[in-house]
Amino acid sequence: MRNILFVFLLTAVIGAAAEEAAAPKARPALFPNGPKGGACTYEVYNWNIRKKRAVNIKKVKHPYSELTAEERDPATGCTVCLEDQELLKIGKLKPFYACRKISGVLRAALEKLIADGEPVLEVTAYRPGRTKNPLDKKGNRTGFSNHAYGVAVDINRSKNGLYDKCFKFGPGCRLIHGGRWKPGVKGTLTKDSAIVKEMKAAGFKWGGGIEGDQKDFMHFSSFGY
Ligand SMILES: [Zn+2]
What we know:
Blueprint: H1 2-22, E1 39-48, E2 53-63, E3 85-88, E4 96-99, H2 100-115, E5 123-124, E6 130-135, E7 141-144, E8 153-155, E9 162-164, E10 174-177, H3 194-201, E11 205-206, E12 215-216, E13 219-221
Antiparallel strand pairs: 1-2, 3-4, 5-8, 6-7, 8-13, 9-10, 9-12, 11-13
Helix pairs in contact: 2-3
Bound molecules: zinc ion.
């Protein structure tokens, strides 16, 4: 009986040690609940529509196991946590973070485009800010956008602005962010440009082709929003 107990204990100890050895160290598991004792950290802000800038900038840190519903994107499982983002260093682009669930396909698409000589000039993805409605009384946006989860990507922002009042593109559209959209200029995205086609092939929808009153020519995500 004592021997059986000893073997049982030994097995348990070896099992625990093996589990520890197999656990990733610098890179916590992404889905579904992260590592035991792992943290979720990010720097959050509200976009204020009156001041037209980020306000309430603060650092958040809590156990990964205590993620709230809004901190996780139900469509992809990606979260606002920096721990779930991968820093992508691609060609001469400024390094940027994207959720590990999309970072592989995104890297492959961008590397192919750059190898083909396409003008991929600026790329950003993860921005854990509250930049979506609803608005509070002070003019702060309070919802997380797809960028907050690292699942939306902006390409060539300085030439592909976000417009509203823009069901169909024309002189009445109002530029909100980024540079003016002038098809024909190098780096400008249209439905026929190789960058848009490659991103679509990688599973992204283009914000320049979405229904509704906004046209976000720099923007890509699984739904285009
Ligand atoms: Zn965007």
